[in-house]
Design brief:
Elements: H1 2-39, H2 48-55, E1 62-65, E2 75-80, H3 88-99, E3 114-118, H4 129-137, E4 141-145, H5 167-179, E5 186-191, H6 193-204, E6 211-215, H7 221-253, H8 262-265, E7 273-278, H9 286-295, E8 301-306, H10 321-333
Parallel strand pairs: 3-4, 3-5, 5-6, 6-7, 7-8
Antiparallel strand pairs: 1-2, 2-4
Helix pairs in contact: 1-7, 3-4, 3-10
């Protein structure tokens, strides 16, 4: 009995050095994988609801043209279709706006303004088709693009705004030239990560944009990731894991995580800005959106608190958010 216990202790003693090596290796490896998933997430495939619109755009009141930018960025240009038929989404939105006594162009007629729509992390441009259907129903052209590391975009790394900042204007300029429509007036719309990209784009190319709408986005990315680490690993392991993850994020993107601060750029924004956020968002708290809103430089701004809105459903609660967003763009883009 004593001999067996002695052998067991010896085996345990031999394992200790390996455990001392293995635990840090696993810890660092997990942080490396987490950082890679943040900056290069698994690409979302096309969904059935995407195909429904792509296969019969006229049944949703739009035309769809898929130009590719000179740098390889895939885009979709959605325009009102004079020969098309509005679907339920477009019909409801027009009714809500008419109840607000807003003047709309006839169905299928453009109002001469363009909206560039930016998706969130792990999204793709086709996720924005139901949004484009609604905006097009009120006369807007909509330009949808795959952000880096998403959809079919060949770029492998997402930086949440700093390196993507020139992309919306590039997309707008190239599409306007190719399809012979004016590049202004133009508005930017961004969801979550796309909202951060929109803030960076507006701050760096502010002279080219006329209105901005941000949905479910953040004032700084680091607290969002820190919070997720703590939610997954607990308050004991989460913070040190976040500390290990940060240098991997920097290595992947070339940008320190703590320097991705949309709120620090917000004072430069002097165009009309609408920010909408769900008050039950577990990923990005309402206080983060409020801080971003308070930092926006223009006094011509509005905050929409979407009751019972989460990060995933903020666009589809009973609250008529599309009517608010469309009314904002109509007020500031359509003369």
């Amino acid at each position: 009995m004593n001999s067996g216990a002695t052998r067991f202790r010896r085996r345990c003693t031999r394992l200790i050095p390996w455990l001392l090596i293995a635990v840090p290796v696993v810890w660092i490896g997990a942080a490396w994988l987490a950082a890679r998933e943040i900056t290069s997430p698994s690409r979302r495939p096309l969904q059935d609801y995407h195909q429904v619109i792509l296969n019969a755009p006229a049944s949703h009141g739009i035309t769809i043209t898929p130009p590719t930018l000179s740098d390889g960025t895939p885009t979709l240009l959605c325009r009102p279709d004079p020969a098309g038929t509005l679907d339920q989404r477009g019909t409801l939105l027009r009714s809500q706006l008419q109840q607000r006594n807003l003047t709309l162009p006839p169905i299928g007629i453009e109002n001469n303004a363009t909206l560039v729509l930016l998706h969130g992390r792990r999204g793709r441009k086709e996720d924005l088709l139901p949004i484009a259907v609604r905006f097009c129903a009120t006369g807007f052209r909509c330009l949808l693009l795959d952000l880096p590391a998403h959809g079919e975009n060949p770029a492998p790394i997402a930086t949440f705004g700093p390196k993507e900042a020139p992309l919306p204007l590039k997309a707008l300029t190239e599409a306007a030239t190719k399809f012979n429509f004016p590049s202004r007036p133009a508005g930017l719309w961004g969801m979550s990560m796309g909202g951060s990209v929109a803030i960076h784009a507006t701050a760096s190319t502010h002279a080219h944009w006329d209105a901005l709408t941000i949905v479910a986005s953040f004032d700084a990315i680091a607290p969002v990731i820190h919070r997720q680490c703590s939610q997954i690993l607990g308050d004991t392991l989460g913070p040190p894991f976040f500390t290990t993850l940060k240098p991997r994020f920097h290595a992947n993107t070339g940008i320190p995580l703590d320097q991705i601060l949309p709120a620090s750029l917000a004072p430069q924004i002097q165009i009309p800005t609408l920010i909408a956020h769900g008050d039950d968002d577990p990923l990005i708290p309402l206080t983060s959106a409020r801080h971003l809103f308070d930092a926006i430089g223009t006094s011509n701004k509005s905050f929409v608190n979407v009751g019972s809105g989460t990060h995933g459903n903020v666009l589809v609660t009973p609250y008529p958010l599309y009517a608010d967003m469309t009314a904002w763009f109509l007020k500031h883009l359509v003369r």
